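Moderator note: this is an archived Q&A kept for reference. The question asked for a predicted structure of one protein chain; the sequence and the answer are reproduced below.
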Amino acid sequence: MMKNQQSGFTLIELIMVIVIIGILAAFAVPRFADLSGDARMASLDGARGALLSANGIVHSTALARNQAVGAGNVNVEGGVSVATVEGYMAGTAAAVGAAAQFEGDFVVTDAAGVATVTLGACSFTYTEPTGPGVVGVVAAITGQNADGGCDP
């Protein structure tokens, strides 16, 4: 007589493996899936780059139109008027928001010639020139959490 042997896994063994994988996934996925802080940081870094580029465009336009001394206004892309100081963007929320086209994505505030661009807990500042020959300065991003991202 021949013996009938079964091969493979029982239903209980398969269910146990699925349960163990589910438990591991419950702990591992949130650790790797929470990238929102990194996304905010990348977005703010992009905004900082946009502001640097916009400041260069405003300065080039002011030089081309012989408006690089004192206060003034230059029109950039699409007829947007940007206030200038010494040929660079003025440190106002209106000038920074218009030049870099921050249309509601970021919170832009200003005080005494310094505009602050904020997203979540992170921010960077733009300081307008304080006199002839001084350049408008875009500072580094501050407020990052321990992982290098920005908290909401």
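Archived answer notes: Residues 36-64 form the longest helix (29 residues).
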